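From the methods appendix. Each design record in this collection lists the tokenized structure first, followed by the designed amino acid sequence. Records were kept in a plain field format so they could be parsed without special tools. The example shown here is representative of the layout used throughout.

RECORD:
FOLD TOKENS (132 positions):
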């Protein structure tokens, strides 16, 4: 036999609150989403620190003044100098120039590139690959 629970009755202890199952699932999804976003941000920070450490230095210089922040600024400036010595900052410059060139390209530039690729001769290194 099924029992009927009267919502008006004081059947529950004070402070007891019922949570719908859908809300519990939403909290789990929120935790998963937060972890994914945190991982993406850490990965982005890692890539930024490797290839565009100049903007990392610029960002860190905007932090408020304090002993911890001063240490962070000194570490990021040393990191940027090391990345410059290793030549990793040049890669960002080349990639940025390519993206700017693509962004600034007109439809005429795209059409010229496509027509050149259709009518152009095969590259020399691909010719004569098979002995005749």
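DESIGN:
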């Amino acid at each position: 036999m099924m029992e009927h629970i009267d919502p008006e009755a004081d059947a529950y202890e004070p402070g007891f609150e019922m949570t719908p199952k859908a809300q519990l699932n939403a909290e789990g999804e929120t935790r998963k989403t937060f972890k994914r976003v945190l991982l993406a941000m850490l990965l982005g920070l890692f890539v930024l620190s490797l290839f565009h450490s100049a903007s990392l230095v610029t960002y860190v210089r905007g932090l408020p003044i304090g002993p911890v922040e001063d240490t962070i600024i000194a570490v990021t400036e040393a990191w940027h100098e090391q990345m410059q010595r290793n030549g990793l900052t040049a890669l960002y410059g080349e990639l940025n120039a390519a993206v700017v060139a693509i962004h600034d390209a007109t439809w005429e530039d795209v059409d010229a590139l496509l027509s050149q690729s259709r009518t152009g001769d095969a590259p020399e290194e691909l010719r004569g690959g098979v002995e005749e």
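APPENDIX NOTE: DSSP finds five helices and no strands in the chain.
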